[in-house]
Design brief:
single chain, 516 residues, 8-stranded mixed beta sheet, 25 helices, 8 strands, elongated
Length: 516
């Protein structure tokens, strides 16, 4: 049944950072990689010139194979591929290069697949979708489950910890957040790759733990499927395992939390989709057919999160270690992660989240706030920044501080010096001193084009920040300004420390971007 809801309605109603369940269509979209059938045909061409070889394999298996047609074809191909590697001299270099893997009994077919994905060029052009993906990985995604072997997700979600293959998933201490579970293996470990029907059978025989883990995730988080066909055999088998563990009433509760994104060149459409398991159990989900993934990612950004998932994962992990190792009779709560080895069990400690190279305490400085405005790398609690740090730091920073990023999500009372900061600077000219306001018009007369990019071109990266603030509000492209500031800071072209003019420009950026 068609829904009148929009993508925005559905995503913003989740009220929690979702887990992404990602298939091969995701890598095909961004890297141009093959789907399963195309991948098998590629490796068939390594060992045979017969253009009908794939069809020959297909004729030998049943469409109703429990693990799917492609995995059954892969089983036949693996046998022939491995024989070719050992018998054909064209693979001599391959055997020399991968001698250690082969000696361990790892299938040459899987080694070749792993090698192929390891050598993919992952330096792709950053379009709007890629940029949005990098932004949502910071705070808006709880975790990722994928059946892909390639490393694209690692490149985008670089703060997430990777767990690949069934053995690692079973025997590792999983925190359940800011993690990528590569349940069918990874190219960096060819022995983990699951591709043939025999692989799937072995996987299923040992899948009780993984099913329990997936069930926990399905019950705790919204799940968004991307890069799969709605009829994908892998997905149906996973749903079947979940359905066996839940009654129909429990399955009903999942239907608004399961979202299936299906690629379509037609106009975006939203409806419901049901999978009937012929045992009285039905899983229902929301199906969105679209080619507009930017809209999906933009709306995921709107799911507010007080903490970065990576920070929560680190906090869970360190508190777990502390609880496991510490004397239960001591008065210890926790200290900063970097000082756990210095705990004195005669004193009471509190939790401090942050990084400090020396000493103790909560290391949020004015410079760290300026950096966080541009790089969004501080993962600070807005409540703590507004209620404690800004009032304190404003006393010793007469030029002011960036405040609006933290104020936009703050609901409490604000201090008098923050109120003064708000009323004192309501226009761009208020950020300039008297001398700069006097020089402003003269400099503007030297510009052929009054834009951020033109000033950067005219003045150079290391000087432009002293002139950009002479532009008017409607002349400042915030994306250009953000990219410029990120570039000079991350490339260490200009230092924030003791640099009043760069700080002035960052305050202006904060004012323009985050002020309500």
């Amino acid at each position: 049944m068609k829904s009148k809801k929009s993508i925005k309605d559905i995503i913003t109603s989740l009220n929690k950072q979702p887990v992404l369940f990602i298939g091969s269509g995701f890598s095909k979209r961004y890297l141009g990689l093959e789907n399963w059938e195309e991948l098998l045909k590629k490796f068939i061409s390594d060992i045979s010139n017969d253009e009908f070889k794939y069809e020959m394999y297909a004729s030998k298996i049943s469409e109703e194979d429990y693990y799917g047609k492609q995995s059954a074809i892969a089983k036949l191909l693996e046998r022939d591929y491995n024989e070719a590697v050992f018998d054909n001299s064209k693979f001599d270099n391959f055997k020399i290069k991968n001698k250690d893997f082969i000696k361990k009994g790892i299938s040459p077919f899987k080694i070749a697949i792993a090698e192929y994905f390891e050598n993919i060029n992952y330096d792709i052009k950053e379009n709007e979708e890629i940029k949005l993906l990098k932004e949502i990985q910071q705070r808006n995604i709880s975790g990722i489950i994928t059946t892909n072997y390639d490393k694209f997700l690692e490149k985008i979600f670089h703060n997430f910890k990777i767990f690949a293959g069934q053995e690692e998933l079973i025997f590792s201490n999983l925190e359940g957040i800011a993690e990528i579970y590569k349940i069918h293996g990874t190219s960096s470990s060819p022995e983990t790759i699951i591709i043939t029907s025999d692989d799937y059978k072995k996987f299923e025989e040992k899948s009780d733990y993984l099913t329990a883990k997936l069930l926990t995730i399905f019950l705790e988080y919204p799940i968004i499927f991307i890069g799969y066909s709605i009829n994908d055999k892998n997905i149906k088998n996973i749903f079947s395992s979940i359905a066996k563990c839940l009654n129909q009433e429990q399955l009903e509760k999942l239907k608004q939390r399961l979202i299936f994104i299906e690629y379509s060149l037609e106009n975006t459409s939203i409806d419901t989709h049901s999978i009937d398991f012929n045992n009285g159990k039905i899983i229902e989900m929301i199906k969105i057919k679209t080619n507009n993934f930017s809209e999906l990612y933009r709306n995921l950004k709107e799911i507010k999160a007080k903490y970065s998932p990576r920070v929560i994962r680190d906090l869970r992990n360190e508190i777990y270690k502390l609880a496991e190792d510490s004397n239960p009779n001591s008065l210890v709560v926790a200290t900063g992660f970097e000082n756990l080895n210095k705990l004195d069990d005669t004193k009471l400690y509190t939790i401090g989240i942050g990084v400090k190279e020396d000493g103790y305490g909560i290391p949020i400085t004015a410079e760290k706030i300026y950096e966080d405005i541009i790089l969004d790398n501080g993962y600070f609690m807005p409540d703590l920044i507004v209620s404690y740090y800004l009032p304190t730091l404003l006393k010793t920073n007469s030029g002011g501080l960036p405040i609006y990023k933290y104020l936009k999500d703050y609901k409490g009372n604000i201090s008098e010096n923050i109120k003064n900061e708000i009323t004192k600077r309501t226009e761009l000219k208020d950020f300039l001193n008297k001398q700069q306001n006097n020089l402003k018009e003269n400099y503007r007369n030297t510009l052929n084009t009054k834009t951020v990019s033109h000033i950067i071109h005219q003045e150079g990266n290391t000087e432009a920040f002293k002139k950009i603030y002479f532009l008017e509000k409607d002349e400042i492209n915030l994306d250009d300004l953000e990219n410029y500031l990120k570039n000079i800071i991350t490339q260490n072209l200009v230092s924030i420390k003791n640099n009043s003019e760069l700080k002035r420009l960052i305050r202006i950026y904060d004012f323009l971007k985050f002020r309500k």
